[in-house]
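tool=predict chain=A
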Amino acid sequence: MPLEDTAAFTAFIQAACGGKIGFGGYGEHRAVYQRSSVFATADQDFRDIHMGVDLWTEAGSPIFAPLEGYIHSFQDNAGFGNYGPTLLLAHPMGEKTLYSLYGHLALEDLQQYTVGAAIAKGQRIGTIGPYPENGDWPPHLHFQLMWDLLGHVGDFPGVCARKDWPRFAANGPDPNLLLGFPGAGTAD
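tool=predict ok
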């Protein structure tokens, strides 16, 4: 299957999910990133380790906040293979702040956000976007956690090079801790 053909890729994902939600794990090594120049670098820097969790389902499916917090930032990270509409929430936890990223949203979701707006746990925060507005991926949510945004606003790498995995894994807790899905990735 040519991965550049998003319609065929979407049909494949939907058939594999069988009408249910598909799951893509934290720390997975993925060849699929070869489909986009967004990840094109020298071999040792090629980003193919997934740093979040993907939930593959139908476009328009609602997304809810797992924790209370506030809107840190948002933007449309347009381009083939990118996130498309992206939301970052901040979740203060005592002296630290945990950040959560929601990628591949519907473009219209960006119109409802205001930086600094409070978000309640369980509040609907968006919907899964259709391709091509979601970065031209089969419809899914990329959900990721970070302790430090490393200066990023409205975006954060969702995939890293194998050599960078230990550093990013230390900064990004496994989202399964919040979602309750089995098994954490190890990037072996």
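DSSP finds three helices and eleven strands in the chain. The two ends are 25 Å apart (CA to CA).
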